[in-house]
Amino acid sequence: MLRPGAERVARLGGLHRFMDWRGPILTDSGGYQVLSLAELRRMDEGGVTFRSHVDGTSHRLTPERSVEIQRLLGADVTMCLDECTPFPATEAQAATSMRLSMRWAARCRDAFVPRDGHGLFGIVQGGVHPALRAESVAALTAIGFEGYAVGGLAVGEGQAAMFGVLDGTVPLLPADRPRYLMGVGTPADLIGAVRRGIDMFDCVIPTRSGRTGRAYTRGGVLNLRNARHAEDAAPLDPACACPACKRHSRAYLHHLFKAQEMLGPMLLTWHNLQYYQDLMRDLRAGILAGRFEPAAAAAQAGWDAPDDRAPEAAEAAA
Ligand SMILES: [Zn+2]
Questions:
Q1: Distance 274 CA to ligand 1 centre (A)
Q2: Which of 7, 152, 206, 214 falls 20 to 30 Å from 312 in CA-CA distance?
Q3: Is 278 tagged catalytic?
Q4: What is the C-alpha to C-alpha distance for residues 275 and 135, in angstroms, rounded to an integer?
Q5: How far is the CA of 176 from the centre of ligand 1 (A)?
Q6: Exposed, middle or buried: residue 234 (CB in 10 Å: 0-12, 13-18, 19+)?
Q7: Is 44 annotated as catalytic?
Q8: pLDDT at 114
Q9: Residue 103 predicted with pLDDT over 60
Q10: Rounded to the nearest whole angstrom, what is the distance from the C-alpha of residue 195 to the centroid of ligand 1?
Q11: What is this structure's pTM?
């Protein structure tokens, strides 16, 4: 929207061509980004007015403009603009915020131009309050969407509270539509959410962790900055087929991070994405075979290995 601008991306052929990405693209509505980046913002019934973090100019984001931007970008999955309810919030605050998001969801539905292979997802809000979550699901399913997201989680409520919301919310969602948990999470979060019926996720964890030296592996979490890896000739994860694991040693990856070579973050990002893809592939196969719990147990079997259980502490000690 702000840089390089939705209209410019559209003139350049859309995001798929701009990035040369042939897979599906899901775009967020901008609501969370406005909340997390913009210093000056004013929310009203019509939308949100905010100041750009790029150049300070003033902008207006409405449900209609958000859907238009996502169409200009060429998104395969468009998300409804919603208000990201702050956490913690009182039940009254969460209710007011959720009901505004439901009115915006209806406006997004009206603004969305139906195209073959493209869909609009509604976002369930309501904080950690079961009655509000149920009211939100009822409002969204009455409008009708191609998929349903559970939003407003992973904002500090903790894994137990998050799973509690999923226990109460996911069974209310249509079984024949994708269910998407926004902004989640660690491998353990993914397994617990899939167990509760979630199909899709998005999260910065695999890429951001990769950039800072944290690797998710079948043996648990490793911090490649830790000095214990300095002469370790073993691969990061012997069962992984990514270039970091197939071609390089833990010692080399450790060296790259110590030398602040950008290849280190690149390789570890690749690895973490491969690990997450492998994890989801194994869970899907388990579900198809009617053996989800054995697949989940197999994925977690190595996590208790006594290697870098507390990477930050280990790094500080090193
Ligand atoms: Zn790997």
A1: 6
A2: 152
A3: no
A4: 37
A5: 34
A6: exposed
A7: no
A8: 97
A9: yes
A10: 25
A11: 0.93
Q: Please count the other Cβ atoms lying within 10 Å of the Cβ belonging to residue 106.
A: 16
Residue of 28, 237, 307, 308 with catalytic role = 28
pLDDT tier for residue 6 given thresholds of 50, 70 and 90? very high
pLDDT higher than threshold 60 for residue 282? yes
Residue whose C-alpha is closest to residue 210's, from 267, 261, 293: 267
Q: Is the pLDDT of residue 199 over 60?
A: yes
pLDDT beyond 50 at 309:
no
Catalytic residue among 116, 167, 199, 202: 202
d(CA 231, ligand 1 centre) in Å: 18
pLDDT band for position 86 (cuts 50, 70, 90)? confident
- pLDDT recorded at residue 35: 77
Interval between CA 185 and ligand 1 midpoint (Å)? 19
- What pLDDT score does 312 carry? 43
Q: For residue 228, report the distance from its CA to the centre of ligand 1, in Å.
A: 19
